[in-house]
Amino acid sequence: MNFPTVGVVGAGQLARMMLGPATNLGINVQVFASSDDDSAAQVTDSIVGDYTDELALLDFARSCDVVTFEHELVPQNVIRFLEKHGVKIFPSAETFIYSQDKIAMREKMKQLGLPNPRYQRYDSGVPNLSFPFIAKAPQGGYDGKGVWVIENQGQLDALPKPLLLEEKVDFSHEISIMVARSPSGEIKTWSPTLTVQRDGICIRTVTPVPELPRELELQIRNLSITIAEGIALIGVMAVELFQIGNLIMVNELALRPHNSGHWTIEGAVTSQFEQHLRAVLDLPLGDTTSTADWAVMGNILGGNQTDMFGHYGLLMARNPNLKFHHYRKEMREGRKIGHVLLIGNDCELAGLEREVEYAVDYLSGVINE
Ligand code: ADP
């Protein structure tokens, strides 16, 4: 039949959400999971192993036509080992580093002439930036873990080194844009999206970014294209940005499907998940046009709610347009366990946001009716 198998290292919700479009296209997806219970391992072929084990991953890769990632944690030496053994792996080790190491990413943005906050790599001594500033663990951070506001030398001394220090940017909004690039060099961008954060975690996205001037939108799209070309991206990437008036600065890159691109499942002609599969298989990319005036996504964070399915009924009856995505992950306080999405045409954005907020609060147990 000649349908390819895409191997995904990692079996969380991002791998799980690739399965819908893969099923439609007839593509096989095999995941390299850390446990049989992982979100994607529950619903597709999986191999359980340690992603830092070169030989285990090579074995996995041999049963795949192409390998990609859904998290940043696979060490560079492991990716390079696979490449040396002829595994087709996207993004490449050389490209993936910009998702794995925030210092390397800052250096690359500087080299590409793109707007960075003032920054430095810090090992010891007196910092070049004045307090307060932001310190970041160069590797392994997520959802605000590994990011600290530093007020004094004592706080800085207490953190493990090296660190990336950045000026504390006084931004008005955080914006993210998804971009895809295939090996043949084709590039597509989606509409930029507003990411609303609470305690370092994105709680909601709104697409398009309300009141974003057209010139700024174009600037953001062009910036994401410059990065995609500059790092030879293959697959999809989220470019997270700060907006300071008419100025845009890069915050960080994620070279994989991303939470800020979940809206594309129902809100764009081609979702980030389908596009990622197309890109790593070197197929022509799909149309990224939005399918509605607005798409509002709300993240459901783990709380004390246990009966998730039992709560669908009320919400579905209340709003037949609401779309549900449950990742079937173990409930843990603050962990992203699902999301809801509403698209709308010819309507007030505030109404959509209210509905999404209600659904999120109800599903996460903040309200009971
Ligand atoms: P993570 O890897 O956890 O996503 P980020 O680098 O995106 O880390 O930082 C998390 C949050 O911290 C950002 O969404 C933003 O709100 C804040 N932040 C990060 N860098 C800066 C900065 N230089 N200035 C001000 N706030 C920042």
Key words describing this protein structure:
single chain; 369 residues; alpha+beta; Rossmann fold; D-amino Acid Aminotransferase, Chain A, domain 1; 3 domains; 9-stranded antiparallel β-sheet; 4-stranded parallel β-sheet; 17 strands; globular; binds adenosine-5'-diphosphate
> How do the SSEs run, as a string of H and E?
EHEEHEHHHEEEHEEEEEHEEHHEHEEH
How many separate domains make up the residues?
3
Q: Report the major sheet.
A: 9 strands, antiparallel
CATH class of the largest domain reads Alpha Beta
Q: What's the CATH H-level homologous superfamily of the largest domain?
A: ATP-grasp fold, B domain
Q: How many strand units?
A: 17
First and last CA, distance? 50 Å
* Helical residues, percent: 25-40%
Mean pLDDT: 96
Supply the CATH architecture of the largest domain. Answer: 2-Layer Sandwich
What ligands can be seen in this structure? adenosine-5'-diphosphate
The total count of helices amounts to 11
The whole-angstrom Rg is 20 Å
Catalogue the unreliable spans.
Answer: none
Q: Which fold does the CATH topology of the largest domain refer to?
A: D-amino Acid Aminotransferase, Chain A, domain 1
Q: Judging from the principal axes of the Cα atoms, what is the shape?
A: globular
Structural class: alpha+beta
Strand coverage percent: 25-35%
Description of the molecule:
By secondary structure, the chain is α+β, with helices and mostly antiparallel strands. The protein has three domains: 5-89, Rossmann fold (3-Layer(aba) Sandwich), CATH 3.40.50.20; 118-167; 173-364, ATP-grasp fold, B domain (D-amino Acid Aminotransferase, Chain A, domain 1), CATH 3.30.470.20. Helices cover 28% and strands 27% of the residues. The protein is built from eleven helices and 17 strands. The protein has helices at residues 13-25, 54-61, 76-84, 93-100, 102-111, 153-157, 214-230, 264-267, 272-280, 312-318, 349-363; strands at residues 5-9, 28-33, 45-48, 66-69, 119-122, 133-136, 147-150, 163-167, 173-181, 187-189, 193-198, 201-207, 235-244, 247-254, 294-301, 323-326, 336-344. The strands form three sheets. Strands 9, 10, 11, 12, 13, 14, 15, 16 and 17 form a nine-stranded antiparallel beta sheet that branches. Strand 13 (235-244) and strand 14 (247-254) form a beta hairpin. Helix 1 (13-25) packs across helix 9, helix 2 (54-61) packs across helix 3 and helix 3 (76-84) runs antiparallel to helix 4 (93-100). The chain is globular and about 60 Å long. It starts with a strand and ends in a 6-residue tail after the last helix. Adenosine-5'-diphosphate binds next to strand 6 and strand 14.
